[in-house]
Design a protein that fits this description.
Shape: flat
Number of helices: 3
Structural class: alpha+beta
Number of strands: 2
Radius of gyration: 17 Å
Strand content: 5-15%
Strand order of the largest sheet: 1-2
Largest sheet: 2 strands, antiparallel
C-alpha cells in the first residue's frame, strides 16, 4: 500500500504474504549465520561482536543487544 506524505516521500507497507516471506527469509538467514558462528571460537566470536559494534557505530546504526542476535 502506498500513502503519499509529500511529493518526494512514499510509505510502503508489506502485505501479510510479504511479511511472511520476509520473516521466513530472515529466519533462514539467521540459522545460516548461527551455523557459521558456531564454528568460531569464543575469542573469535568476541572479536566479531567488537568489529560489528564498531561498524554499526561508525554507520550511525542503533545499538544491538545480545538478545537481538541470539548467537552470542
Amino acid at each position: 500500500m502506498f500513502r503519499c506524505q509529500s511529493r518526494g516521500t512514499r510509505i510502503v507497507e508489506l502485505t501479510e504474504e510479504g511479511t511472511r516471506v520476509v520473516r521466513g527469509v530472515t529466519r533462514r538467514r539467521r540459522a545460516a549465520i548461527s551455523r557459521i558462528v558456531a564454528k568460531m571460537s569464543e575469542d573469535e566470536r568476541r572479536g566479531l561482536v567488537e568489529a560489528l559494534t564498531a561498524f554499526t557505530k561508525a554507520g550511525g546504526e542503533p545499538a544491538v543487544t545480545s538478545a537481538d542476535l541470539g548467537w552470542i
